[in-house]
């Protein structure tokens, strides 16, 4: 179950854009071998809101593009497919039948700024940030060069499969 709530009014979020974001989430889960029903909550916010959240949760007093709050723990260097294929999670990891993977907070205002900066569409930027964030929920990180390369390869593979290019 994918829950997306638009809590900002800075950037127009069309039904088409919401469907693209949802499609990016679902394809990323499939690509990463998440075979059971999963629940992800996504909140679309403005720069002021994400700055407050970044300060509160990461002690960083600045805007960012996306925040990820995974519900599952991972060993360093391991991702969902490395650890949790055919794994039996306890009931605390479920909401009904859906495996709780985590929450995503995306600044649509920052996504729009970055789309303009990089010369591509808001759809491409929002989908890229969504994929990036879902990979974080699944254990990916970019703290070491090896982890960063693994994450970038997954991002690019998914973007290409979804035919989301730098329009």
What's the order of the H and E elements? EHEHEHEEHHH
Radius of gyration: 15 Å
In total, how many beta strands? 5
Query: What profile does the largest beta sheet have?
Result: 5 strands, mixed
Helix-strand makeup class: alpha/beta
The global form is globular
Instruction: Report the total helices.
Output: 6
Distance between the termini: 29 Å
Helix content: 40-55%
Beta-sheet strand percentage? 15-25%
Mean pLDDT: 93
Low-confidence stretches: none
Please provide a written account of the structure:
- This protein is an alpha/beta fold.
- It is 46% helix and 18% strand.
- The protein has six helices and five strands, in the order βαβαβαββααα.
- It has helices spanning 15-31, 47-58, 80-83, 108-118, 122-137, 145-161; strands spanning 2-6, 38-45, 66-70, 94-95, 98-107.
- Strands 1, 2, 3, 4 and 5 form a five-stranded mixed β-sheet that branches.
- The radius of gyration is 15 Å and the shape is globular.
- The two termini are 29 Å apart.
- The model has no long low-confidence stretch (mean pLDDT 93).
Give the key terms.
167 residues, alpha/beta, 46% helix, five-stranded mixed β-sheet
What's the arrangement of secondary structure elements?
Elements: E1 2-6, H1 15-31, E2 38-45, H2 47-58, E3 66-70, H3 80-83, E4 94-95, E5 98-107, H4 108-118, H5 122-137, H6 145-161
Parallel strand pairs: 1-2, 2-5
Antiparallel strand pairs: 3-5, 4-5
Helix pairs in contact: 1-5, 4-5, 5-6
How do you describe this structure in short?
This protein is an alpha/beta fold. The chain has helices at about 15-30, 45-60, 80-85, 110-120, 120-135, 145-160; strands spanning about 1-5, 40-45, 65-70, 95, 100-105.
């Amino acid at each position: 179950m994918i829950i997306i709530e638009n809590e900002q009014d800075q950037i127009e979020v069309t039904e088409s854009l919401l469907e693209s974001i949802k499609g990016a989430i679902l394809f990323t889960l499939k690509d990463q071998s998440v075979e059971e029903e999963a629940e992800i909550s996504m909140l679309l916010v403005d720069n002021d809101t994400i700055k407050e959240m970044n300060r509160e949760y990461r002690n960083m007093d600045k805007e960012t593009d996306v925040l990820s709050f995974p519900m599952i723990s991972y060993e360093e260097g391991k991702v969902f497919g490395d650890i949790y294929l055919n794994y039996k999670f306890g009931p605390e990891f479920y909401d009904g039948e859906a495996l709780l993977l985590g929450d995503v907070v995306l600044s649509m205002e920052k996504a729009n700024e970055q789309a303009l900066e990089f010369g591509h569409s808001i759809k491409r930027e929002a989908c890229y940030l969504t994929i990036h964030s879902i990979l974080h929920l699944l254990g990916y990180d970019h703290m070491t060069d090896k982890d960063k390369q693994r994450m970038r390869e997954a991002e690019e593979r998914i973007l290409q499969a979804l035919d989301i290019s730098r329009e």
